[in-house]
Amino acid sequence: MVLGFDLGSNTLRACVMKRAGVGFEIVKSSERIVGSARGLVANKPLQNDAKERILRALGEILEELSDLIYERNLDFENTCARNLGFENTCAQNFKNAKFSLPYAAVATEAFRVASDSVEFFEKLYKEFCVKFNIIDGETETNLTRLGIENRLQILGIKAQNAVSIDLGGASTEISSAEFGQSFKFGIVRFCNENPGILQNFSYAKFSQIANEQTRSAREFLRSLGAGKIVLTSGVPTTISALKLGICAKDYDAGKINGSVLRFSDFAGAIEQILKFSKREADEAMGENRAEVIVAGALLLEAILSDFSGSGADFIVVDDGLREGVCINLMQNLAKP
């Protein structure tokens, strides 16, 4: 078994994986919305509240996975992981803990552009003994592809002609079996640049902005001649859950993997979300996620606009970079 972490521009995800009869399978996983890129300006520091959310989330995730990942069972009675603060953490037991599993931890676009990522990662290592490495867009694309192809293999779906789209918080990766590219747009970036989307929603206005931001991605997708489109990340999985009537507390990746979206489902999700009360939105999608899901639906609709009249099915999978990090680690460990 191995342990992998994916610290993205919106979400911190971690999982333990092992080899299975077909491909690789998740033993246990955990994730938190951290909004790393909220309020972030290129070449400026990460927002302090984003750092606090990441610290708290990492402590909670390590506690959740503790039965599998440490050499000994840690006593979490005094770790206060759920109350961690940026300036005053009390996760003393993490500082000298040793992982019983090989692990890899990666960070993506928000940390590529923030000016204080190195210093912040030093603090994470000091507090939790987890060393994060910032990866470039090409590496992110390749690792994400590994995770997606593994899931398609398990589902019995041939990946040869499949094109995958990973819509992230600050970057978006599109890849085929042969070609891949990372684009500098994402849901948190879109929200940062267009505050108050839900309060001042205009479909025409925001669709135009999304179309402008995704033009190069759309052209790249067109050049790949996709046989199948596979969507991963929190936006398509949440839209699929909404379509299936699965609320946030009952979210089950097993029910989402292999599910299908149609082009009309993006506009349908936006319409549904705009009708929700704040309480209904939080119950359906998780706390304070309505705005980013609307932004993501707009961006996916723009990226996939060439398919608007085709009746195409878009396959949704929950797996992505987190799983790819684990698979890559296991493959490297197996090499002589």
Structure, described:
The protein is α/β, with parallel strands linked by helices. Helix content is 46%, strand content 17%. The strands form two sheets. Strands 8-7-6-9-11-10 form a six-stranded mixed sheet, with helices on both faces. A five-stranded mixed sheet has the order 3-2-1-4-5. The longest helix is centred in the first third of the chain and has 22 residues. It is globular and about 55 Å long. The two termini are 18 Å apart.
- Please count the helical segments: 14
Residue fraction in strands = 15-25%
The best one-word shape is globular
Computed CA radius of gyration, to the nearest angstrom: 19 Å
Largest sheet: 6 strands, mixed
Helicity range: 40-55%
Q: In angstroms, what separates the terminal alpha carbons?
A: 18 Å
Number of beta-strand segments: 11
Q: Biggest sheet, strands in spatial order? A: 8-7-6-9-11-10
Mean pLDDT: 90
What are the secondary-structure elements, in order, as H or E?
EEEHHEHHEHEEEHHHEHHEHHHEH
Low-confidence stretches: 76-92
Give the secondary structure arrangement, pairings included:
Layout: E1 2-7, E2 11-19, E3 24-33, H1 48-69, H2 92-95, E4 103-107, H3 109-113, H4 117-128, E5 133-134, H5 137-155, E6 162-167, E7 172-175, E8 180-183, H6 187-193, H7 203-213, H8 215-224, E9 228-232, H9 234-244, H10 253-256, E10 259-261, H11 264-275, H12 278-285, H13 290-303, E11 314-316, H14 321-334
Parallel strand pairs: 1-4, 4-5, 6-9, 9-11
Antiparallel strand pairs: 1-2, 2-3, 6-7, 7-8, 10-11
Helix pairs in contact: 5-14, 6-13, 7-13, 9-13, 11-13
